[in-house]
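Tip: read the tokens left to right.
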């Protein structure tokens, strides 16, 4: 149980790099809902039942809010594209933590990642009512190559939205289907709906009942057990 929670908490922090949307020529305000699946999973059905199945990305102006829920844990990631900062809000069984990332910290993390090359494709796919272009991203990390396929649309955002994602930073639009991986699991995100509506500015602020911490402190607190 503890091992599963650790894996998931690490993924929640990794969601600081989940791509969202940002203001472009056609400003978008509203909510994008994604279905999450786990291709080639090595986990049992009971373990997968604890993993998140839905992700929502809310966009207002130059800020986005990513919400993810799972058994015993809720996480929110707020990104400000104007000053290139992020904060992750983790609520783990009533224990609430906020992890900030400055521009310098985001840039340092990006620099430490393997180099990625982007190959555009003529292939398109209709996702959540939008015609999306296909892109293939290949990452070379110390000689180990990984390939990611993604679909994006420029109707909902621009390249600015992906500034903090080492895989998709060169994609000029909002990703409506993409992958995220670590050594334990692969997560596939596919948009199922895009709802345009007015949102409340307060939802893009840090609540007063969250305690500021760091990724290292969080891993230390929840990483002491093996199972």
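Filled-in amino acids:
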């Amino acid at each position: 149980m503890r091992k599963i929670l650790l894996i998931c908490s690490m993924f929640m922090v990794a969601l600081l790099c989940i791509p969202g949307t940002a203001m472009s020529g056609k400003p978008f305000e509203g909510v994008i809902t994604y279905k999450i699946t786990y291709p080639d999973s090595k986990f049992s059905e009971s373990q997968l039942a604890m993993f998140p199945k839905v992700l929502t990305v809310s966009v207002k102006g130059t800020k986005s809010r990513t919400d993810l829920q799972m058994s015993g844990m809720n996480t929110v990631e707020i990104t400000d594209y104007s000053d290139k900062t992020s904060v992750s809000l983790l609520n783990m069984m009533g224990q609430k933590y906020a992890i900030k990332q400055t521009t310098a910290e985001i840039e340092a993390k990006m620099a430490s990642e393997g180099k990625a090359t982007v190959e555009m494709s003529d292939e398109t796919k209709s996702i959540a009512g939008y015609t999306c272009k296909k892109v293939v991203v290949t990452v070379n990390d110390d000689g180990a190559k990984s390939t990611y396929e993604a679909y994006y649309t420029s109707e909902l955002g621009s390249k600015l939205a992906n500034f903090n994602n080492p895989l998709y930073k060169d994609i000029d639009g909002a990703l409506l289907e993409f992958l995220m991986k670590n050594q334990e699991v692969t997560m596939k995100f596919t948009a199922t709906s895009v709802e345009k509506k007015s949102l409340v500015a307060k939802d893009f602020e840090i609540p007063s009942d969250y305690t500021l911490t760091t990724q290292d402190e969080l891993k230390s607190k929840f990483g002491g057990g093996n199972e």
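DSSP finds four helices and twelve strands in the chain. The two ends are 5 Å apart (CA to CA).
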